[in-house]
């Protein structure tokens, strides 16, 4: 069989496997999940290997990436229960209630009023944090509102609306990646790293994680900066912040690219537009509620961490207090210091190297974060597609191991899997930096 025919065959198998995984494999069936995702990664790496000797244009990667995502479009999320909170917030907004003013448990204290707005026991029982105020910024709240308004009585209908936004965002990301690769004279086949990655497809469109929209806004920001339109790039940057908040930490990376004066103006404009966007859903009380939930989230939850788990296992026995609450502040400070160090130590701080700098910034954040869900790494894969670092791709291969936690109640992580994951990623990164071929 010719290589191009074999690649088409592998692609068809990948699409079928993606559909099967999306419709028929819950996260509790861990061994079947590993079998299917393992097969998909085998096909993924096989296609990448075949692609080395084939000449494909960007259109092929965009269409094939779109087909993979379309295979997940009409399924209910099987790996995540976050969508229950998305719909809950949307139905509150559709009912004229600010979702930042009460927790779901407080709302259920008034069952008649809750029932009139569609806040059903099914939604309440599906949520994983019913005692926390919502933490989702205005762009997402707008999507939740549209999803619930258009499908007030259907969970599936609301999911389809949210998935449609993510699908369009992902297609936009593929087009932007294609443009940037061409502008920087990088091989179009680099687009395959993101377009075909099984974890990216499964987690973003398949399981409704809005990192997909954040990635699109960040790529749009880079695109406009590349075109010399720094002023216009503020708009997608603000939209990214109003989607996931995390792009805030990328601001320092602009200092040596735009200069101090332009960066200060950029920051002031960003702050003003972000403030106006948040005014659509915020007052002082709702802002306090959101910040309280964010603080409680990082002080009470942990999953698949690296540095934090080392601290916990080393010093957890020395105190009866909440070590995470104390250590979390220092881990956050370490992230800030790390990003500023990156800013001033970076070589060749031009726009072409901005994706690489962003990759390192997100990597620093994940290094010190007590929570590293699989979908968090999708951003790194998109940014890695614009350069020559490949450790995020290996990371996506290992992240399905983390779903071992959800095989049964009560949830229990296997730290051997966590250690294996980070040792492999760290080892490969060291190889890329020290022993691999010269980068960039």
Secondary structure: elements and pairs:
Layout lengths: L2 H22 L5 H22 L6 H13 L11 H13 L9 H4 L3 H6 L4 H6 L11 H13 L4 H29 L7 H5 L2 H6 L7 H16 L3 H15 L10 H4 L1 H20 L4 H17 L6 H9 L7 H23 L8 H15 L9 H7 L6 H8 L16 H21 L5
Helix pairs in contact: 1-2, 1-3, 3-9, 4-8, 8-9, 9-12, 12-13, 13-15, 16-18, 17-18, 18-19, 19-20, 20-21, 21-22
Descriptive keywords:
22 helices; 67% helix; globular; mainly alpha
Describe this structure in words.
- The chain has helices spanning 3-24, 30-51, 58-70, 82-94, 104-107, 111-116, 121-126, 138-150, 155-183, 191-195, 198-203, 211-226, 230-244, 255-258, 260-279, 284-300, 307-315, 323-345, 354-368, 378-384, 391-398, 415-435.
- The longest helix is centred in the middle third of the chain and has 29 residues, at 155-183.
- The protein contains 22 helices and no strands.
- It is mainly α and 440 residues long.
- It has one domain (3-78, 160-284, 287-435).
- Helix content is 67%, strand content 0%.
